[in-house]
Amino acid sequence: MPWIGATLLGALVPAAIVSVVLAWQESAALLLPALSFAFIITLGHTLILGLPVALFYRAKRWHRPELAVATGFLIGVVPVGVLGWRIPVWPGYLLILVLFGGLGASGALAFWLTLRRAGVLDGAPASSE
Question: Is the pTM of this model over 0.90?
Answer without folding.
Answer: no
